[in-house]
């Protein structure tokens, strides 16, 4: 009898139909529950992929120190993967990340280095490059690493296709590193070029954890604009309101980027008929409780 190890439980997440938040017009809204991964987010997939593939190429060996800039979920996933596979993990992240995220990484044994909130992920990425150049560890660099989208081409995309029986018409995804949307788009377009791929970014001035509007010089090199049919700008209040709706109307406790994904899916649903619209619920909402975002309105 085969007993799976923890890393074998990554992926194969549920795809559920929303029951109370409906779009009408014959449309079906489907949520891919990535918070069901063992470290609690969609980033479990690329975290394992980046370490496994680097190991296979002989670029890293257990015992090495790995360095990564992260705003949270990738850091938690990499900390878990490093614990499983025997690496020392150093995370560089903005000080504004939620307490739950920082504590989760530390619980897995990762070392945290914080940069200023104003410097944000750009400062974190610059510091990671400096530390690697000084020989303090080896980079994974989720923003430029093709093993990031490869994980979604091999797993997330095929799961969406199989779980919808090939009927998916629209895929809606928040864009951070862009690994998820790149890998899923590549797979779904190979199966059916008519599937529409919709990416989400914050509108100017919005701060939504997990979604980024990158300055041109920091745009992830894994991003290929030709793989995205349409990009929607999501407002901060809009994302937060829909995050609360997911919890209160569907029982799905998720983060702000997932609220943004729901908002984007509903916008698409208002324009189409008889569509099967799937969106990514990136993580679990329990890692945002300290932010007060779920507090009852007064």
From TrEMBL:
<dbReference type="InterPro" id="IPR001926">
    <property type="entry name" value="TrpB-like_PALP"/>
</dbReference>
<protein>
    <recommendedName>
        <fullName>Cysteine synthase</fullName>
        <ecNumber>2.5.1.47</ecNumber>
    </recommendedName>
</protein>
<feature type="binding site">
    <location>
        <position position="257"/>
    </location>
    <ligand>
        <name>pyridoxal 5'-phosphate</name>
    </ligand>
</feature>
<feature type="binding site">
    <location>
        <position position="73"/>
    </location>
    <ligand>
        <name>pyridoxal 5'-phosphate</name>
    </ligand>
</feature>
<dbReference type="InterPro" id="IPR005856">
    <property type="entry name" value="Cys_synth"/>
</dbReference>
<keyword id="KW-0198">Cysteine biosynthesis</keyword>
<feature type="domain" description="Tryptophan synthase beta chain-like PALP">
    <location>
        <begin position="8"/>
        <end position="283"/>
    </location>
</feature>
<comment type="similarity">
    <text>Belongs to the cysteine synthase/cystathionine beta-synthase family.</text>
</comment>
<feature type="binding site">
    <location>
        <begin position="176"/>
        <end position="180"/>
    </location>
    <ligand>
        <name>pyridoxal 5'-phosphate</name>
    </ligand>
</feature>
<dbReference type="GO" id="GO:0004124">
    <property type="term" value="F:cysteine synthase activity"/>
</dbReference>
<comment type="pathway">
    <text>Amino-acid biosynthesis; L-cysteine biosynthesis; L-cysteine from L-serine: step 2/2.</text>
</comment>
<dbReference type="InterPro" id="IPR005858">
    <property type="entry name" value="CysM"/>
</dbReference>
<keyword id="KW-0808">Transferase</keyword>
<dbReference type="Pfam" id="PF00291">
    <property type="entry name" value="PALP"/>
</dbReference>
<dbReference type="GO" id="GO:0006535">
    <property type="term" value="P:cysteine biosynthetic process from serine"/>
</dbReference>
<keyword id="KW-0663">Pyridoxal phosphate</keyword>
<dbReference type="InterPro" id="IPR001216">
    <property type="entry name" value="P-phosphate_BS"/>
</dbReference>
<dbReference type="InterPro" id="IPR036052">
    <property type="entry name" value="TrpB-like_PALP_sf"/>
</dbReference>
<keyword id="KW-0028">Amino-acid biosynthesis</keyword>
<feature type="modified residue" description="N6-(pyridoxal phosphate)lysine">
    <location>
        <position position="43"/>
    </location>
</feature>
<dbReference type="InterPro" id="IPR050214">
    <property type="entry name" value="Cys_Synth/Cystath_Beta-Synth"/>
</dbReference>
């Amino acid at each position: 009898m085969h007993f799976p190890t923890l890393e074998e439980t990554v992926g194969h997440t549920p795809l559920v139909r929303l029951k109370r938040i409906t779009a009408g017009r014959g449309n079906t809204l489907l949520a891919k529950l990535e918070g069901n991964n063992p470290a609690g987010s969609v980033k479990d997939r690329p975290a394992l992929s980046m370490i496994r593939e680097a190991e296979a190429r002989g670029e890293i060996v257990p015992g090495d120190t790995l360095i990564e800039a992260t705003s949270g979920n990738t850091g938690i996933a990499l900390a878990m993967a490093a614990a499983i596979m025997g690496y020392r993990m150093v995370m560089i992240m903005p000080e504004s990340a939620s307490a739950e995220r920082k504590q989760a990484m530390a619980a897995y044994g990762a070392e945290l280095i914080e940069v200023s909130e104003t410097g944000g992920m750009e400062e974190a990425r610059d510091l990671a490059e400096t530390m690697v150049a000084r020989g303090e560890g080896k980079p994974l660099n989720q923003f430029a690493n093709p093993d990031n989208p490869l994980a979604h081409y091999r797993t997330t995309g095929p799961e969406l296709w199989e779980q919808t029986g090939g009927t998916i018409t629209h895929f809606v995804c928040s864009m951070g590193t862009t690994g998820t949307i790149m890998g899923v788009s590549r797979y779904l377009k190979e199966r059916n070029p008519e599937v529409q791929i919709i990416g989400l970014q914050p509108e100017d001035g919005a701060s939504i954890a997990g979604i980024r509007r990158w300055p041109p010089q920091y745009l992830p090199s894994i991003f290929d604009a030709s793989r995205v049919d349409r990009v929607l700008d999501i407002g901060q209040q809009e994302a937060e309101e829909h995050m609360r709706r997911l919890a209160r109307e569907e029982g799905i406790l998720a983060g702000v980027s997932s609220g943004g994904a729901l908002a984007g899916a509903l916008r698409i649903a208002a324009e189409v008929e008889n569509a099967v619209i799937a969106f990514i619920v990136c993580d679990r909402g329990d890692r945002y409780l300290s932010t007060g975002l779920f507090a009852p309105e007064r």
